[in-house]
């Protein structure tokens, strides 16, 4: 039995009326690897922000679209003079503003209530972040949003995109919670708009690398050889058993 997807308007309304407890609960994903990453969200977030920061270097403004509770927005202050979070949900923004105030960064970290489909939600920024929100938009709205972002960014500026996608062996599908497109859907559009892919990795990979320090073996020992040999069938089994992945992309405007 297949689920009937909601329209973008209905999904936007559902997001607008969500509460922060519901958001925290929804972060937990279907498979145990991604759930592990989500359960220790701050480790994953900080690892990804560090990766993004290495690409950005330093910028005057970081724009966080669909910022939710604002924790990522505040984290971008590690390399940005100021950060602006945009979200349609007033409850989320209230939590985000309180968090910025408690952290002593309210003067540098501001929030505004707007929809992603509102052209005024996008403005020039050295980093523009889209965290886990494009799956709630119709294809035409994704195209329009990406176009607005490309129009305001100049060569060398960074776009961070995080979204659920179908696994390699699954067809695109939709549920009441969103649209699960292929990774290629997003990649083709951003490449056509003049972006170069700098990094692509799963949330679980970012989390595991943060725990291990990104260490790699210096020599090919027996254990490493066995792990490498098994990696392909393990990957294939995961793709067969699962329907979706959570992918992070870091793009640089050409």
Question: What key phrases describe this protein's structure?
Answer:
254 residues; alpha/beta; Rossmann fold; 10 helices; 9 strands; globular; disordered N terminus
Could you explain how this protein is built, in words?
The chain is an alpha/beta fold. The protein is built from 10 helices and 9 strands. The strands form 2 sheets. A 7-stranded mixed beta sheet has the order 3-2-1-4-5-9-8, sandwiched between helices. The chain has a two-stranded antiparallel ribbon with strand order 6-7. Helix 5 links the parallel strand 1 (about 60-65) and strand 2. Helix 4 (about 40-55) crosses helix 9.
Layout of helices and strands, plus pairs?
Blueprint: H1 8-16, H2 20-26, H3 32-39, H4 41-56, E1 59-65, H5 71-75, E2 80-87, H6 90-102, E3 109-113, E4 127-131, H7 139-152, E5 158-166, E6 173-175, E7 178-180, H8 183-192, E8 195-202, H9 203-212, H10 222-241, E9 244-253
Parallel strand pairs: 1-2, 1-4, 2-3, 4-5
Antiparallel strand pairs: 5-9, 6-7, 8-9
**Averaging pLDDT over every residue, what do you get?**
82
**Overall CATH architecture:** 3-Layer(aba) Sandwich
Q: Write down the Rg.
A: 18 Å
Strand order across the largest sheet? 3-2-1-4-5-9-8
Helix content, binned percent: 40-55%
**CATH-defined superfamily:** Vaccinia Virus protein VP39
Distance between the termini: 44 Å
| Helix/strand/pairing category | alpha/beta
